[in-house]
UniProtKB/TrEMBL annotation:
It comes from Gnomoniopsis smithogilvyi. One of its GO terms (molecular function) is hydrolase activity. This is BD-FAE-like domain-containing protein. Keywords: Hydrolase. Residues 38-256 form the BD-FAE-like domain. It comes from the Eukaryota. The keyword Hydrolase applies. InterPro entries: AB_hydrolase_fold, BD-FAE-like_dom, GDXG_lipolytic_enzyme.
Amino acid sequence: MDNVDLSRFAPPKFIPPKDAEIIKDIQYCSQGHVRQRLDLYLPKPENRRQGRIPLIVYIHGGAFMFGSKESPLMPARLLAKGFAIASLDYRLSGDAIFPAALEDCKSAVRWLRAHAAEHNLDTDRVIAWGESAGAHQASMLGVTCASARGDDFEVGDHLDVSSAVAGVVAYYGPTDFLQMDAQAPKEGTMMSHDAADSPESKFIGGTIQEVPDKVARANPITYVSTGEKPPPFFLAHGKNDHIVPYGQSVIFEEALKKANVPVTLHPVGDSDHVFIGASKDEMAALDAATDEFLATIVG
């Protein structure tokens, strides 16, 4: 199995949204790592809803190795619909292995909740949103907030404040690292996940098939059970994804349904990773379906 060229999936240049009030480089953790920062985008007054502002916590992708909070994949279109967006940086695998990234994401949610009154944010309507590696973090936020096992990842500041989220939007995210190679499409150049130098192995700090206990601790699917109910999930995935196989969302949907968690899996045709190859109609349908999911949470 050959490794694909990840640069093929690199997003275009980031252009800051014009219809927002922007607060840059908020340090959300007193530990002070350069990546422990977020940018907060607030909708312009004319686009705000009555009452407090619902919040999207956006987590960028990048194979756990690269990417930044200045991501063109951030759903900036939602600012016009009255959402605030907090776009996070977090420690990458070259900075620290799992669970550092998840600890950072939880710290960011706690900071946002602790400072919500300053920005009129609605602490009851916080939605985690990510794509690829960011979808993994968003999913982990969702499944661990309902699990006592998630307490292990609560470190840093504002520990008296919850890191729970009210919903999760996860686009083409990994959910069980050990099944990724087996689920890969049969044709085309594939990403090798079992290799010692794979993004997942670097993220875990060991060749994934050789450290299954560590991998299980990092897999979102591990935390889904009938006794600990996560918030609703919206999953979207291209059926011909050569980086994160479509099957990753299928098995996650099945696990969530078995646990009676509200979940929608929205296939985006035969598109590849980052929805490459999707038509305009398919992308418009994805936006509409995502908005419908958000409406079930924020009204």
